[in-house]
Specification:
Structural class: alpha/beta
Helix content: 40-55%
Distance between the termini: 22 Å
Oligomer: single chain
Number of strands: 16
Strand order of the largest sheet: 6-5-4-7-10-15-16
CATH class of the largest domain: Alpha Beta
Bound molecules: 5-S-methyl-1-O-phosphono-5-thio-D-ribulose
CATH superfamily of the largest domain: Translation initiation factor eif-2b, domain 2
Strand content: 15-25%
Shape: globular
C-alpha cells in the first residue's frame, strides 16, 4: 500500500531549494499556479498570515524553514544573533493563532538548537531539523492513510460516499494529506463511490483546493454548498465524514475549520460516522478542552466581498474561521501513533504516551 500511495503523490505546495523556501500561492489556486520564493523569516511569517501557505501541518513546516532563514540572516548580521532569532521566532509564532503545529514545529527547532554541540554549524543543523520535520510529516500522512483505510474497511467492503470539509490534502501538509490521504487510500482500494467536498465559505478551501486536488487524482468528486450537508447526509449514502484538525485538546475536542462542528452534529443525527485525521503534532495536551483554544477571527471583507467586489450590506461581521467539535461527537481520531475510537481524556493520554516511545 505504501508504494501505491507514494506512486499516487502528485501535488506539492512546499519546497526547500537553494537555501530558500518556495510556496505554491494558495490564494490563486486553482486558476493560477504561482510559486513564491521566500528568502527571510519575515516573508515566511507574512506568507502564513496571508495564507499563501495554509493547513496546520503545512504552516508548521513553513515556519521551521522560516527559522532557518532567520538563523542565516542573524548570523550574517553579527551581534546578538540569538536575540534576533528569538524575535523572529515570536513573529512566526504569532502569524496565526489556532493551529498547534506552528508552535510545535518552532519549539522543536529551538530545542534542537539548544541541544547542539559547540562545534556544530547552526544553520546546517536547523536546516537538517526543518527537513526532518517536513519528511516526518510526509511519513505520518502515509501511516495515517493506511490506518484510516483499515478503519473504513472495518465497516464497509464496497464503495460508498464520503464527505470532507476544508482542505486537508497535499496543499495542507508536507505529504499528500491527512483526511484526503485516507480518502486517496480508500480510492486506490476501490472503496470510494464519490467524495462530496463542502465549498468551505468564506475562503473556499473546499471548492478551490480540495475539489482541484481530488479531480487531479481522478477521484469522483461533487462540490456542495456548505449548507447542503444535512440534506446530503439524509439519504445519499454517505458513510463517513472525514476531516483534518488544527488542534486536538487533551479531552479529545477537535478544533478545525468553521463548519466542522455542524457537520459532526449532522453526522451523529443521521448515523454517519465522523473521522478526524491528524498527526500527533496537532495534539496539544496543554489545552484541556476546546474552549481553551484561541479561535482565529479573520477580516470582515472575507464575508462582505466577493472576488474583490463589495456585495454584502454594511453590518457588523462575525468571522471566526475555526470551531470546536466536542469529543463526544467524534467516532475516531486517526494519528500516526495510533487510532482511538470514541475519544476521551484517558484514551488521549494513552495515545500521547505512545508518541514518546516513537
Ligand atoms: O484556515 P486554513 O485553511 O489554514 O484551515 C485549515 C484547516 O482547517 C484544515 O482542516 C486543518 O488545518 C487540517 S490540514 C491537514
Amino acid at each position: 500500500m505504501r508504494e501505491q500511495l507514494l506512486a499516487a503523490e502528485r501535488i506539492t505546495a512546499i519546497a526547500w531549494r537553494d537555501g530558500a523556501l518556495y510556496l505554491l500561492d494558495q490564494r490563486l489556486l486553482p486558476l493560477e499556479q504561482l510559486w513564491v520564493r521566500c528568502e527571510s523569516s519575515g516573508a515566511v511569517a507574512a506568507a502564513i498570515s496571508q495564507m499563501l501557505v495554509r493547513g496546520a501541518p503545512a504552516i508548521g513546516v513553513a515556519a521551521a524553514y522560516g527559522l532557518v532563514l532567520s538563523a542565516r540572516a542573524r548570523l550574517q548580521a553579527g551581534g546578538d544573533w540569538q536575540a534576533g532569532l528569538q524575535a523572529d521566532y515570536q513573529q512566526l509564532a504569532a502569524a496565526r493563532p489556532t493551529a498547534a503545529n506552528l508552535l510545535w514545529a518552532l519549539n522543536r527547532m529551538l530545542d534542537r538548537l539548544q541541544r547542539r554541540n559547540p562545534d556544530e554549524d547552526v544553520v546546517a543543523l536547523l536546516e537538517a531539523e526543518a527537513i526532518a520535520i517536513h519528511l516526518s510529516d510526509r511519513e505520518a500522512n502515509l501511516t495515517m492513510a493506511q490506518s484510516g483505510l483499515e478503519l473504513i474497511r472495518k465497516h464497509q467492503d464496497s464503495a460508498q460516499s464520503f464527505l470532507t470539509h476544508c482542505n486537508a490534502g497535499a496543499l495542507a501538509t508536507g505529504g499528500f494529506g491527512t483526511a484526503l490521504g485516507v480518502i486517496r487510500a480508500a480510492h486506490l482500494q476501490g472503496l470510494v463511490e464519490r467524495v462530496y467536498a463542502g465549498e468551505t465559505r468564506p475562503w473556499l478551501q473546499g471548492s478551490r483546493l480540495t475539489a482541484w486536488e481530488l479531480a487531479e487524482d481522478g477521484v469522483p468528486t461533487t462540490l456542495i454548498a456548505d449548507s447542503t450537508a444535512a440534506h446530503l447526509m439524509r439519504g445519499h449514502g454517505i458513510s463517513w465524514v472525514i476531516v483534518g484538525a488544527d488542534r486536538i485538546t487533551a479531552n479529545g475536542d477537535v478544533i478545525n475549520k468553521i463548519g466542522t462542528y455542524q457537520l459532526a452534529i449532522n453526522a451523529m443525527h443521521h448515523g454517519v460516522r465522523f473521522m478526524v485525521v491528524a498527526p500527533s503534532s496537532t495534539i496539544d495536551m496543554t489545552c484541556e478542552v476546546g474552549e481553551d483554544v484561541v479561535l482565529e477571527e479573520r477580516d470582515a471583507t472575507e464575508l462582505l466581498d466577493f472576488a474583490g467586489q463589495r456585495v454584502g450590506a454594511r453590518v457588523e461581521v462575525f468571522n471566526p474561521v475555526f470551531d470546536v467539535t466536542p469529543a463526544d461527537l467524534v467516532d475516531a481520531i486517526v494519528t500516526e501513533t495510533g487510532v482511538i475510537e470514541r475519544p476521551d481524556g484517558e484514551k488521549m493520554a494513552q495515545l500521547m504516551s505512545r508518541r514518546h516511545l516513537h
